[in-house]
Amino acid sequence: MDKHAKIYVAGHRGLVGSAIVRRLEREGYTNLVYRTSKELDLTDKIQVDHFFEQQKIDYVFLAAAKVGGIVANNEYPADFIRDNLLIQTNVIDAAYRNNVTKLLFLGSTCIYPKLAPQPLKEEYLLTGLLEPTNEPYAIAKIAGIKMCESYNRQYGTKYISVMPTNLYGENDNFDLHTSHVLPALIRKFHEAKENKQPFVEVWGTGTPKREFLYSDDLADACVYLMDNYEGNEIVNIGVGEDIEIGQLAHLVKETVGYNGEIQFDTSKPDGTPRKLVDVTKLNSLGWKASTSLEEGLKKAYQWFLDNAVQKVNS
Ligand SMILES: NC(=O)C1=CN([C@@H]2O[C@H](COP(=O)(O)OP(=O)(O)OC[C@H]3O[C@@H](n4cnc5c(N)ncnc54)[C@H](OP(=O)(O)O)[C@@H]3O)[C@@H](O)[C@H]2O)C=CC1
Ligand SMILES: C[C@H]1O[C@H](OP(=O)(O)OP(=O)(O)OC[C@H]2O[C@@H](n3cnc4c(=O)[nH]c(N)nc43)[C@H](O)[C@@H]2O)[C@@H](O)[C@@H](O)C1=O
Question: What residues are designated binding site?
Fold first, then answer.
């Protein structure tokens, strides 16, 4: 991308979008444009078309979405499928109608079948039933993948779709009901330590396995792929190793310095047993993750202490 190209980061305040903005600014891209959801509701086609007509955008990082953990997905299926279909459909179509040079769509590893062989290869998409707890969201993401591919085939656009594994880092969501596991455990262990609680409750059995990629690494991969990848095939983005939720809980416990017990609430869903991504294609394109879980966890906890503690307590 030319350093003066106009780059729109949709979802710039989120975990992923804010990391992409930091990465682009660090690399000297000066012509960034972004809007909050209050300024520009991407579920509203009229607002989106007007924005794209006005702005003459060259590149789009589509990191705006309705996002949440396993319980949020399970409780608000209509919100997850509707908002994500609307956001991605409006942005991808407006990008085409306004001659955007290239667009990167963020999918998720939840698009793969619940019981697909591990590690997950890109070709496993649509080869089996999805995990029920997040099927509506996954269907929306699969529709986004197919929309990018279809516009490329029919209109000759250059829209790429990337499938990140579970992410964490700065500007994460620490709400205990709607967040993902890693930020939730950071907050739970921190508050248990501060309030001298005897135990911390971890959802599910603790036996599922998850892979965790630090958000700054993901942002680096997205900028790298925007410059170095074209094609209709999806690209997994991950670290290539995973951890049991129970072990993750012990790692967060140590990082936070909490000395109480861990209890498992098996009334909460486990979700898919494992979703480790195969990163062969990503590595062959020339990119590898660099932040270890231990290192990333320390950074995420420090960010939480410096930025999120007062907010979540208010
Ligand atoms: N977090 C994770 O573990 C993973 C995330 N992903 C994908 O990465 C992308 C970003 O996720 P993440 O950064 O975690 O999500 P966040 O919830 O942190 O950020 C989502 C962003 O989307 C914006 N947004 C939501 N609804 C609208 C709307 N109607 N109009 C305009 N903007 C809207 C929000 O803007 P505002 O703040 O202004 O309201 C927010 O900044 C998503 O596509 C997600 O599916 C993929 C794999 C894992
Ligand atoms: C990124 C990915 O994220 C989601 O899928 P998920 O990975 O299953 O989501 P999760 O991070 O919420 O849970 C992972 C595991 O962790 C366990 N768990 C323990 N204790 C807590 C806890 O306190 N909170 C949460 N949220 N989970 C907990 C939880 O029971 C589960 O076994 C979907 O959005 C999906 O669509 C998607 O794309």
Answer: 11-17, 106-109, 141, 164-167, 180, 188, 203, 210, 270
137 is catalytic: yes
Give yes or no for residue 259 having a pLDDT over 90: yes
DSSP string, 158-175: -EEEEEE-EEE-TT----
Nearest ligand by distance to the CA of 134: 2
Q: In a 3-state reduction of DSSP, which class is residue 35?
A: coil
Question: Does this complex have an ipTM over 0.95?
Answer: yes
Decide: 87 and 147 in contact? Cβ < 8 Å: no
Instruction: Give Cβ neighbours of residue 68 (< 8 Å, ≥ 6 apart).
Output: 76, 80, 173, 178, 179, 180
- Per residue in 153-163, pLDDT (tens digit) is 999 999 999 99
- CB-based contacts of 104: which residues, under 8 Å, 6+ apart? 59, 60, 61, 62, 159, 160, 161, 162, 222, 225, 226
pTM of the entire predicted model? 0.98
- Ligand 1 pocket mutation pick from 61, 67, 148 by most atoms within 8 angstroms of CB: 67
Does residue 23 register a pLDDT over 80? Answer: yes
Would the pLDDT of 310 be above 80? no
8, 29, 59, 137: which one is catalytic? Answer: 137
Distances (CA, A) of 228 to 120, 209, 280: 22, 31, 16
Q: Is the CB of 300 under 6 A from ligand 1?
A: no
Q: List pLDDT tens digits, range 216-245.
A: 999 999 999 999 999 999 999 999 999 999
d(CA 186, CA 90): 35
